[in-house]
Amino acid sequence: MLKYCFILTLIGFWAQAQVQQLDEVVLRAQRINSPIQPLSATLVSDSLQLLLQQDIGERLHTVPSLFVSSQQNFTQDTRISIRGFGARAAFGIRGIKILLDGIPVTTPDGQTQLDHIPLSQLGDIEVLRGLSGGLYGNASGGVILLKSTPVNTQKNIAVSIADFDSRSVVATLSKAYEKNHFRAIVEHKNQEGFRAWSAYENTLVSLSNTLFINSENHLSLDYSFFNSPFAQDSGGLTQLEVEQNRRQARQANIDYMAGEKVKQHYFSARFKNNNWASYLFYVNRHLDARLPFAYGGQIDLMRHYFGVGTYRNGAKNQWKWQYGLEGASQRDLRKRFENKLGTKGAQTLHQNEHFHSVSSYGIVEKEVSDWHIRGALRADLHQISLADFLGAQADKKTLSALSPSIAVHRELSNFFNGYVRWGTGFETPSLNELSANPSGETGFNSALSAQKSEEIEVGLRYSEKTLTLGVTLFNTTTKNEIIPYEVETFPSQTFYANLGNTKRKGVEIDGMWHAAPRTKITMVFSHGNYETETKRLLPNVPKNQFNSEVKRLFKRGGLAVNIRYVGKRFAENGNTIVVPSFWTTDISIQHYWGKIRATVGATNLSNTLYFDNLRINAFGGRYFEPAAKRQVYFRMMVSL
Is this model's pTM higher than 0.90 or not? Predict the structure, then answer.
């Protein structure tokens, strides 16, 4: 029924389309400018900042086959999956490559945390759905390209309050001179949370400066400091505990004072010289975490990672190309201690882990009449090593991958275009996954292998002055799928194993209608079947998703309404625990007077009971993290 309603709505859009020029869209995530855009979806920036501004997932619900969870657990961080890639993440984001202004945010081993990026800085966000190993290498089952808003001269301060004792203050100072653009952002956020033992507090300072040497050369420098003195983890509940009290925390999480504190320094530099561009970055992240079990339940992780890259664009006649080199290195000094009900006990692990990567790639595209043909090839070499200071063990692995892809695009008429794309991808286990050894011994889990994927995709798009419609079909095969699990011997600790082969196939439909000069309606629907070789579905990946967003701009403000449907999913490999489907609605409205802008909104307006996150294959049935009920928020921004 849902599919029929969606199709009828789109037909209605088509019939009522008015003459109005659509905004020109320039997509960068595929590295070179091209009409071949088989995977990209550009999300219009939240320029009025209508959303709650709590996490990046708020902006991504209108991307087909993209699923966001764990938006309210600030220890586990927001989790994002695209076509099932990334669903296994125990914390943060896995299997998806994320870049900020062209610089990788994802670590060399494929993990991503986004807490050091101020949401007020972000403009457009591009998403590449599907395998992009030929473009971005390891852990690119999807790509998210974050773009900073242009620097304009302004000074403002925004204060937000919301239910569950949520508060934030954001101050921005930026200057746009002729030869120099500078921006400084300071954020402070804290919240008690919907559930017990889910409070957090953090402070973020972000500085950026761009020096324009001449019309073709510029140098950009960025620095950020993130400090989170505490973020509590309320843990997963059983179904019975959820029925008793959705707002309670797991008692063991309280007893062991589960949570984390984080400090991170980030520095990057970008240099653009005509057709050449280069970057470098360095990150130092210190994590202290307490997990809800005794042996090895306290983690002290000091992470250093850095990277460099350079590429060149070119074009001649009907040819376009880009080639580049990238290198990255990651060093994790990992220590574990006994967790004696929140107090640090004896040391149980002390090891140095390294992940080094070097890559080269090339992309070439040829235009022949109404045809565009593109090929990409990337070679990646990874060296992983471990030095164990307690068990006197050492381990070393070398992994390599060659990732080709090819796409063919055809203009079928003034309104229709189609494409076929074939691509490959791979994903190495992260250092965290390798160091989680179910044998209880120190050293890497030698049984864990990299997963490799192959995908074919076909798409058709209709575009006219007020309406765009797109249909995409995909079929992906993955070998050695990596999946998380828990064991009775070490309850609450996540381990990883290769599940076997997985088949992903589905259809994605998206439509955007400019109903009036100031009104835009977006609708997306995705249906996928993510099946393992045992004929079971991947856990925590919904088969059906639907989203409809209406945005209306007024002379002095705007209105946004978002309706979201997530179909049923499973909590474990056996598919015996069914997680019900749900609908949610978010709404926000804004008005401004002179230099004052006020926003009022509500998430989960209908008080739907659903789950914010699932702990996949959790021992003892502790799968469920209940989502918050209705959260009303108010934000006041004053320009100084």
Answer: yes
